[in-house]
Design goal:
The structure is a homodimer. Chain A is of the alpha/beta class and about 220 residues long. Chain A has a single domain, classed as Spore Coat Polysaccharide Biosynthesis Protein SpsA, Chain A, CATH 3.90.550.10. In chain A, about 35% of the residues lie in helices and about 25% in strands. In chain A, the strands form three sheets. Chain A has a seven-stranded mixed sheet with strand order 5-4-1-6-10-7-11, sandwiched between helices. A two-stranded antiparallel sheet of chain A has the order 2-3. In chain A, α2 links the parallel β4 and β5. β10 of chain A pairs antiparallel with β8 of chain B.
Chain lengths: ~220, ~220
Amino acid sequence: MNTAIIAAAGMGSRMASDRPKQFLHLAGVPIIFHTLAPFEECAQIQEVIVVLPAEEAAAFLTLAGKRGLRKLSRVVPGGTTRADSVKRGLTAIRPATAGIVAVHDGVRPFVTVEEIESVVNAAESDGAAILVAPVTDTIKQVADDSVVKSLDRSELRRALTPQCFRYELLKKAYELADVNDPALTDESALVEKTGARITTIEGSSRNIKLTTPQDLLIAEAFLKQ
Amino acid sequence: MNTAIIAAAGMGSRMASDRPKQFLHLAGVPIIFHTLAPFEECAQIQEVIVVLPAEEAAAFLTLAGKRGLRKLSRVVPGGTTRADSVKRGLTAIRPATAGIVAVHDGVRPFVTVEEIESVVNAAESDGAAILVAPVTDTIKQVADDSVVKSLDRSELRRALTPQCFRYELLKKAYELADVNDPALTDESALVEKTGARITTIEGSSRNIKLTTPQDLLIAEAFLKQ
């Protein structure tokens, strides 16, 4: 059984709103439900676990019930960091039947069914796979407010989600990880430390993470397209 | 005398349009004129040179005349690469009175007067300065469709424009450079090769480069804000 863990426990401090960003509305619907839709539709995903701020669980479940999300199996209260939250989601998976775990940001509503399928399929064959997009800007390594060097952007990719791993591999990575390490900005960073090969799958640059009010404007523009 | 070189010679092959992107309309006005406005207003810039596709020069000058751009001194036909185009712009500057050269992308219309001022001021004191913005994504170094490693994004910045240099420094950098080298994605990359220190000035992430139809949607959303 393949499980999606939707990481939606953030408090959205950069959104200048009194609501966590994953519950802000986009085209009249909370962002989290936009995000859940392609996982509901994707045949490679059988179960969805949502990690939320503890105080949001009841209201979420009421709305989720109305929307008929068949695959939603658990709502898990989040931890103090993203890594801690995803680890709690992982604990809710039954080891005996666990297959691929697809971790996805709750505020990336533009992922497509095809992208989820591609990354799950790659993880099934390779053990670990992440969705990436090209880096379009010139990236500089900097120190003390000056340029150290320009990096070769043909060798760089932006890590998106989902990031998919065999259950045992991700579990092992979390056992080795310090979930309070701020350098762990995605699951891949944890799994890289185990030495496992991580396949990259090229995805769309539309699959943005909504973290600022500006991102919401961009998202509304995408939906109008 | 400080000169802005506006690099607008690109043919916009990624824009899926029959017009070069810098001439597409944003809120009813060609993008290039949005871009020129803050340079016209900025007290630290005395002269503006625009590098254009040769066949666009006449139509541009007609429009520019109607808009009363006082600082526009020359329209220069572009070369085959960005670096070649900027080099041609540089050739149009009078060495005897040259001060700081501010190179800016013709399709970055959201730069502010204050940002231009900050970068010009830093280049006057340090010799070279570029506008940058934080990297918000996790960046992976990749090879053969797999992850090599995660980079520490606190050490990375996205290079924006303007990029400002003392005339003699930029001229020397172009003398040393192969303008057909595809790794030269910005002027800073050339100047780095001379060993000069390049100061980074933190700018707004609104200062995006409009290269795809999706970017135009985002730009329209910014303008409605």
